[in-house]
Amino acid sequence: MQEIQTNSKETIVTHDMHDGRHYGAVTHPIYQNSLFTFETHEELEEALAFEVSSIIYTRGNNPTVRALEERLAELEGGEEARCFASGMAAISAAVLSTVQAGDHIVCVDGCYGPARRLMEEYLVKFQIDTTFVDGKDLLEAQNAVRPNTRLIYLESPTSMLFELQDLEQFAALAKKIGAKTIIDGSWASPCFQSPLSHGIDMVVHSMTKYISGHSDLIGGVVIGAKQHLDQLFRQEFQLFGGILHPQSANLFMRGLRTLPLRMHKLQENGLKVAHYLENQSFIIKMNHPGLKSHPQHELYRSQMSGSGSLFSFETHIPMESMRCWANQLQYFRKGISWGGFESLVYMRNQPDNRVIVRLYVGLEEPDDLINDLKQAFASIEA
Question: What is the pTM assigned to this prediction?
């Protein structure tokens, strides 16, 4: 029977055709194997000749992991995907697959902290330099380009201030200078943003976040064109060995099944809490692209179909008082890795004595979260 083609993300993550190889099992089996053998030596030789697509050794391909990779590629609209043991393993492999000694990178200034450290501190020992630019300003990025620029690294929106880049403009700039583009798309997930359709070469996700959704897994994925991902497979993927294990892949698939459902609920909860905060006089700035007050809201609407539930606000209330406020919160736990079912708070000082508060709104009843915020603000007489 020929399968009906669909663009529905809900159907893509939920539906599997009957698989007689596995007795019609509804969920894909866990192939907990390091090694796969062959009936004849000729078959082994043929598999080794086509290692990128063969099941030989789990440091390369594993059926359970491949099932997840194929689903993620389809969900993102890419030709190929490769899963890694962490988001940083995926980012590092993607970056290193595009540059070599003596090259130059242009990177948005507000990118994920460890990704910035990779480019700013680690790669310099290979004579790979990075210029960090304001991603809102294409001209600044153009002025940062050098003859040896080989990569433009994006994160839209960024991790703390939630600033966007115009993906089509940056993709066009990269193609003009013969560079690759990579974007960290974790905030919007594959449900709400499709960077490949805007000309971006590779998308990386921290699967630890929304794709897992249960705060019990660590993993990452790189998605893009088959030609580039096959090259990455032979080099950074196999040589560094930062592979995702089959049991983790099985649990990630479980999280993926409900991803669209969770993202719509998280978007709804996040916007409700953000609208409450937006109306408080002691909050001087909200950083949430889904709010009409966000200066890039129209760009958000043009290249995203929805929003995550991670955002920040800024206040002049002193950090000492804000720590007391955070400690009074009952439904917001204190932590940094978001994307699960639980709400979180994380704060840091800005150079101008503002305090920036990053909230992750989880799956709790949003009115309970708002009441929690109210009582905590009342406790410090905000």
Answer: 0.94
